[in-house]
Amino acid sequence: MTLGSVPPKFKVSIDHDQCMDCGRCIENCSYGVYRREGDKILIESRKCTACLRCVSMCPRDAINITEKPIDYRSHPVWTREAREDIINQARSGKIILSGMGNARDLPIIYDNLLLDACQVTTPSIDPLREPMELRTYLGKKPSKLKFKKTESGDVELDTQLAPNLKLNTPIMIGHMSFGAISLNSQLSMAKAVKEIGTYMGAGEGGLHKNLYPYQDNMIVQVASGRFGVNIDYLERGAAIEVKIGQGAKPGIGGHLPGEKVNEEVSKTRMIPLGSDAISPAPHHDIYSIEDLVQLIRSLKEATEWKKPVFVKIAAVHSVARSAAGIARSSADAVVIDGFRGGTGAAPKVFRDHVGIPIETAIASVDQELRKQGVRNEISIIASGGIRSSADLAKSIALGADAVYIGTAALISLGCRVCGNCYRNLCPWGIATQRPDLVSRLDPEAGAVQVSNLIHGWTLELGELMGGAGINSIESLRGNRDRLRGYMLDEGMLNILDVLPAGA
Amino acid sequence: MCGIIGFIDRAKSRMDGSGIKAALSLMNERGSGEGAGYAAYGIYPEYADYYALHVFFDNMGEAKKKVDEILQLWGEIVHQEEIPNTPQPGLKKVHIPWRYFFKPSQNLIAGRMASENDVVMHIVMEVNEKINGATIFSSGKNMGVFKASGWPEDVANFYRIEDYKGYIWLAHHRYPTNSPEWWGGAHPFNLLNWSVVHNGEITSYGTNKRYVEGYGYKCTALTDTEVIAYLFDILGRQHGLSHEMIVRALVPPFWDDIDRMPEKEAMLNKAIRLTYGPALMNGPFSIVVGTDDGIVVFTDRIKLRPLVVGENGSKLYVSSEEAAIRTMDPEVKSIYTPRAGEPIIGRFI
Amino acid sequence: MKTVRIDAKGMHYTPLNQKIRAAVADGAEEIILDNVLGQRFIGDGLRGNVRIIINGVPGGDLGMFMSGPTCIVNGNAEHAPGNTMDSGMLIIHGSAGDAVAHSMRGGKVFVKNNIGYRGGIHMKQYEEEVRPVLVVGGTAHSFLGEYMAGGIVLVLGIGKEKAMTDIGIGSGIHGGEIIIRGEVDDYLLGLGARKFKFTESDLERIAPIIKTFCEQFGYDPTEFLDTNYTRIGPASSRPFASKYVWE
Asked: How much is the ipTM here?
């Protein structure tokens, strides 16, 4: 091997004046950066992922981590990343896998969208005193209602409503499977969504029995691998989601590596211990839109039409057309996952280069469904890189009914976005199945953190709506008149159908 | 900030426009003299079967020719003329107000449109969106809208409003905030027999606009109020909802209230909110809508704008201020303030 | 035995399934469906030990998510019978379409004649004792047992010169086995699939399956109880592991 090693990504140091030699850094680092030799703590910086577990556990703030202690000769084209990927592939001849979502430094459209507020012509609404309605129903809705008069002259509804999910706030937690993340992570989030009155996705990994108490707040997933899917599973979920694609890796399937398939994961997914769990790229019973309709209806028929069925697609160039096809099926909601969506592992070239931003996908899907006159009959759930209540409010103003958060929920559990989810070594007990690491995450405490986050965003959303003179979420949905684009080009403004700031 | 008035004589006895002119002028403080207008129902009994199309023309050349062509494509013009007007020193006549009495002809619409009303709606959208220099601002039967930029008295005198006799009157004085001052932006807004006057602002306009656009309506008046006329046309005419149900859909009860209702009623209200969520109107407003069979009056869900109701026998009055009602009818018997979101409906008896 | 007869002529699948569920709830042990023509999802998500006799041609996804019942089809079946089935049995006195036994986790699907493309695709197994079984009397088209993660696919090739002549057998297989009567040309095997010698102990293992199959369709099992089979299994339990390198 003539390539040698690449420079370490991080440099870890301990301020020995501060250090009290407690050894917490050694205990906490699952990557093996620290070790004790005699009375010294030795550091192997190359192993560091900047997960910051050691920093957060050090009682004396004695640890310092710097990024890129040694850099390459600067070059605008041949970035460090470009050079290191080439070196990696020159060594291996393989496809590069990576974790978390799109890591390219592309402009984030949310940041260039600005929200509106009232001044003289309309009053703001004060959510402290006045009603503020964030309740959201997801599912099929009639395009119009029929009424009939009873013999006694009362007016009665003559339209049957399809089952809908009732959300107290338009924030849900997206599908992260048991296997990809730990049971304690799922439990934390499940407790939180139950407490808040919203929902979380089970992911394509079945439903562990410890989650049964929270099943009324869980959406079960049917993906191409059909892991853990049987009639009990379908009946347990509050809704069923067919996963066609994922924003982090549109067009391809997924593999849960055999080393993550321990006994519990194997039981829940109903697959053998230690074998790879392979989700193929397509569902092998879906090769066309009418096959998707068949799968949706088979799910509805199996559950006697009592459950809403969602369909999740990755936001790709044709997202609007796909969503329109889905809207005309029996699906109750379409989930669109933008190219910043997270993942445990994805080929880097897909993660970073395939798909489109969620902001544009919401805008074009909403627009297309309106054009076809079916917008209000199906719900739109947006996901992929939603970081704050501002992103949430902007998503809804662009046309989403609700959002899924993923990475944000994991950050509320301790994740520092180090991007090493696939290694089964997550020191925060999130993306790992190693019992000693999983036990670091207390589901009770985790639940409080997750529900705090959702609660905080919900309060902020209410304030933003009040400031805009709106007291019901319906009136924010698709209300692009309350958005302005800042430093967005004309083409982008047209796609988003928003005016530039100042107009 | 605006002043609005609504009147109906439920016995269909007609009132001339002098009282409403005086009443609206009384509320001059509420406007800025940049737009005023009146709608009156029952004014064209001799043409009761014809659509009275009121049009603003910028010129009588190309624009007029195009409108004539569209109308002839769909039906017959039985009479047309400039809407009688008298120049006012305080009012700049920037348009020529014109009226057609028009009837779509059955053999021209057969197979192309479902009904006469659909044809007229189509013509209105087509002209307002595509023909430069022409705006149809009134398109009902046996009714008409008269509006312009100016103070209420000047607009009334310009159109000689006291010469018209109607059993429903709507009036409005504008303080434009969210849109440019132009004649078409003055209230009332009209489509077919729906006319709307509105005090306030609709913060849900973007959502409502996209909803009506999904049904083929084009928002061309550059102001939020026109969307209300279209919402009434969709919910009332196309979906066949009663006036009470339309108001329930536009300003529905809060979820907390629905949760406390008996099951059947709760289900009905839930269905309305789910189905008509995009039609829900938010923001501060009080609104009077003139219809085929009466007037519909309602406010926003937390009553951020004023509205007073007065009654005297078959006569029902509503206005932003009580003084306006007493100006029209010093003998008014009862005066009250309606509850937020609850419709006051005046129907012919 | 309590038998319920349902005339399915012109009936939509939802009311048909409702009638089936009602009959099962009412204690029916046998349900006979007459005049079935194209109704999808028969027995979808159905539990219990009921026998459903289907006279006619059922539509796609027969017995999908089914857990327990036995469906006997006197006719052909369409797309994906036994899709994601958990347990129970489908006995098809005819042929079936594509994706037969797709993702099936348990139970048995017996097809007297032929099946289409992607038969047994992504079949999987969880516990040793509940393994899904697909037996085809005739032949199967391409991509048989693709992505297979468990269970047994058996192709007998009755009346055929060669049991399998289509390519892509066992592409991406990482569990379970595909057993084919007679020899299989190497070029028919998909990526990640490998041939193994079929032994006496293999025969012992599959003999009960052969016997049950023959019982259903009136074949003499002794004709099939020899070692003239080819066994195809995974070359690795992690067929794609070598494609990837971490960042």
From this structure: 0.93
